[in-house]
Design a protein that fits this description.
The protein has 152 residues and is mainly alpha-helical. Helices cover 59% and strands 0% of the residues. The chain is built from 6 helices and no strands. α2 crosses α3 and α3 crosses α4.
Length: 152
């Protein structure tokens, strides 16, 4: 029973590794490690939210092979990624670069936090400045009626 559990755990844990086929793996372990590291940051264009190492799509396989071809040709990691980005666009990157038109994406979070803080601060300041006279008070007739209702 323990062996079956161990086998099932190994299959589940190694699931994403099945996407890389044995014929894709490079003979040089250093180049293969570089290829795997680069592949972690490249998006599968078919699966969208998976990296190419985890995807079984044909296009992901083509990208994995292209990465390995570029590394065998002597390209650096940066040159390999730049080649793929030039070919497929910046969408292929799982983590977009903070430059060019992406600065808006990178700045949107902090800007929205500052705007929300300013709006919250303004609301609280305005609320604190509100005078008590602005609050609705009961008229004499309403107070008498309330007292009568409370007595009953």
């Amino acid at each position: 029973m323990l062996r079956i559990f161990a086998l099932a755990a190994a299959l589940v844990a190694g699931g994403p590794a099945f996407a890389v086929q044995p014929d894709e793996i490079l003979d040089d372990p250093a180049l293969e490690a570089r290829a795997r590291e680069i592949s972690k940051d490249l998006r599968c264009l078919v699966c969208r939210n998976e990296n190419i190492d985890e995807s079984n799509a044909d296009l992901a396989r083509d990208l994995r092979l292209l990465v390995r071809e570029r590394l065998v040709a002597g390209d650096s990691d940066t040159e390999t990624v730049d080649f793929i980005v030039d070919r497929y666009g910046e969408y292929v990157l799982l983590n977009p670069r903070p430059g060019g038109s992406n600065w808006l994406l990178w700045a949107a979070g902090p800007v929205m936090l500052l705007v929300a803080g300013a709006v919250g601060y303004g609301y609280l300041r305005g609320r604190a400045r509100a005078s008590e006279t602005a609050e609705a008070r009961l008229t004499r007739e309403e107070e008498e009626r309330l007292q009568n209702l409370l007595k009953d």
